Amino acid sequence: MPASFIGQFKSYLNCGQLNQARNLFDKIPNPNIYSSTLLISAYTKQNRPLDSIQLYQNLRKEKKLQPDNLLLLSITKACALLSDPIKAKEIHKDVIGFGFKSDLPLGNALIEMYGKCGLISEAQQLFDELPVKDVITWTSLILSYKNCKQFREGLGVFREMLISGPKLNSVTLLSVLAISSKLKSLKFGREIHCFVIRNGFEDNMFIGSGLVDIYSKCLITHDARIVFDGMRSKDVVSWNVILSAYSLNGDLDEALRLFDKMKVDGVLLNSASWNSMISGCVQNGRIERALQFFAQMQDSGTKPNHITIASILPACTGMESIRGGREIHGYVYRNAFIKDIIIDTGLVLMYAKCGDLNTSRLVFDQMPRKDIIAWNTMIVANSMHGCGKETLTLFDKMIESGIRPDAVTFSGVLSGCSHSQLVDKARQSFSSMEREYGLNPDADHYASMVDVLSRAGYLNEAYEFIQNMPVEPTPSAWGALLNGCKVYKNTELGKIAGEVLLDIEPQNPGNYLSLLNIFVGAKMYDDASRIRMLMNDRGIRKEPGCSWVQIKNKVYTFVKGDDRFAMRNEVYGFLKETRRKMRVEGYMPDTDIVLQDVDGEEKEEVLCSHSEKLAVAFAILNLDRGEVIRVFKNLRICGDCHGVISFMAKSIGVCITVRDSVRFHHFKDGSCSCKNLW
Ligand code: ZN
Ligand code: ZN
Fold it and tell me: How far is the CA of 648 from the centre of ligand 1 (A)?
């Protein structure tokens, strides 16, 4: 090869222009081992392991190239990057075949490669067979156990190394620290901490950060902080570790203080710093603050990445975060590099949970590729919104696209059928689970079938179904029957289901209330007072009803019976006037749920103070016409509120969406998407 040629070739490699270098390389009739090794290791360095390996295989086959130990070392590293177990074994064979079985650097690299490919027994065997071992050999084996998630075995190798191996170095310590962090083993963490102090590794910044991480994973924030404060030098990684120590352990305030200190100290924040704060806020329920961080992160010039979006998006399901969710959608749209199937699915779920099924569907339809999770999300979304027929259509389309349904798919379809009273479809779907798809229905599927039958009024059949199911009926199965009995006023079966529930789910106030409701409705006052006494004795209290509504970017909260809200008099006046209009048109208030020792007029007053009514009335008084009113409630919407809100939607001419603890209700023109059965 002429000298000018090789000069040009090398300068391409140095500039990272590998394609040009390859063009040149391909013109050489018989490339020597030196230039081959240069090109192969350049590919590996640029994270193109497949190109490395293909080139190597070509050279071996067509040019009959005889590799030396350096070339094999380079190709072993490529294979570790690729994590391909079949190629790994081929390369190992070459190493033996060309006589490098006892080469120490090669042996070390092969151990690491096997670990990355998940072949831990091969790694161990290689280790055992190497005639001479150095600190890298031992460390590679420890790392291999870590990569194969066999953490305890990795620590075992470390202990053996302390007894009979060479002196360890900081890389060994770092890999053992990483293992202890995975194991969350405080005992071992302390052992290593002592070792670090005794052997003078204290000033190593990476080891210091590793120790902070262990104490934090073991929830000992105090010790994590002592190590952190004692570190002589810290980089952004050390700071991020202590940040997540506090935010993961629930001390968000201290994390916020440290975050401010980072800025004051001039630490260059990276995306992991921001992500740590954002996920800390999300985990501590501070969604609004998380969204602020998301905005500040962008202002500061740090680009939110995939992790940022994936941690914040699932949190945007509350009233206050619809706007935040839209902003994230906007960001994803503008920065297409982040877009992937997980983020898209997150958007589908976010819009559905925030009550905007149309946009949810739009995002779903535009997804270039849909996996089972995406399909299931769209099916569940439709069932949440009471669109049972659509869940069935989606199911068919999913099958058409070649995706096999799983247990979650059927849960979605069955619950969709039950909310839309598609009894026959539900029966077909349920029986096809096993027959066509080989899936055994679990307790939840059986409970869904009880729900389907109960909502449609087939109460006897539902009861029979419960008695004959091959799995232990869950509280939700009995709860579905009880609820059906409440709606269809079947006292006899209601009593049976209710008594079972008081036994197997004694802490759920809803069971007592439903049963109470049934007894009061049937004028069985003795039974009713027995239930009330039981509630008292067991200390069961109903969680106070609470509703949220957003008006012009501000979220208003209404708690049942709480009178300290803005426009109190206007809201009550409006509700009273609505009630009067309803009476004129012949509607009767649904006062069943109120305890019977309150008299007629008082009952209505108690009903008027329900949080969802207050929230809707407040929204109507404050909203621009044409907008959709969205109210979220923590409990199930009550029968009376359902009737009144339905009436308001019609008389004012607005669309009202209420998300209660079970599903969405879309009120329009005097009727609800749940068809008054929920
Ligand atoms: Zn109510
Ligand atoms: Zn409804």
Answer: 14
Ligand number nearest CA of 640 is 1
Q: What is the pLDDT of residues 140-151, one digit of tens each?
A: 999 999 999 999
| Of 356, 364, 306, 359, nearest in space to 331 by CA | 306
| C-alpha 645 – ligand 2 centre gap (Å) | 9
- For 377-386, the pLDDT digits (tens) are 999 999 989 8
Do the Cβ atoms of 421 and 675 come closer than 8 Å?
A: yes
- 517-528 core/surface letters (b: 16 or more CB in 10 A; e: else): bbbbebeeeebb
Average pLDDT for 602-617: 79
Q: Tell me the CA–centroid distance for residue 313 and ligand 2, in Å.
A: 28
pTM of the model: 0.71
For 493, residues 6+ apart whose C-beta sits below 8 A from its C-beta are: 459, 460, 463, 481, 485
- CB within 8 Å of 469: residues ≥ 6 apart: 446, 477
Name the closest ligand to CA 606: 1
Quote the ligand 1 centre to 557 CA distance (angstroms): 15
CB 53 within 8 A of CB 18: no
Listing DSSP states for 256-318 in one string gives: HHHHHHHHHTT----HHHHHHHHHHHHHTT-HHHHHHHHHHHHHTTPPP-HHHHHHHGGGTTS
